[in-house]
Design goal:
Elements (H helix, E strand, L loop, with lengths): L12 H19 L2 E2 H14 L3 H15 L3 H10 L5 E2 L3
């Protein structure tokens, strides 16, 4: 994809990398599917870096604007999925 990922200049390099991994996991959920546990791990780390709901919403909306992929819908599907299930967005 030809777009940039949203991030904060206040984050460390490791935090930027981990947030990008979360957005890549969202991409995978839409493009080829991803195991629930893999997405859950990426989301938990994302929430450690971005604990604020308002900031999470802002970043996810920015990502959706450039990619067309809804982090919100992917995370909702992940939360509803059974353990071991594969998340595949349509």
């Amino acid at each position: 994809m030809e777009y940039s990922y949203p991030f904060s200049t206040d984050w460390t390099t490791e935090e930027v990398v981990d947030v990008i991994k979360f957005f890549e996991a969202i991409e995978n959920a839409y493009e080829k599917g991803i195991d629930k546990e893999e997405l859950m791990t990426a989301y938990r780390r994302f929430k450690e870096i971005v604990p604020s709901k308002a900031e999470e919403k802002k970043l996810c909306n920015e990502f959706e604007d450039v990619s067309g992929y809804s982090s919100y819908h992917a995370v909702q599907k992940m939360k509803a999925a059974e353990d071991g299930e594969r998340i595949k967005m349509k």
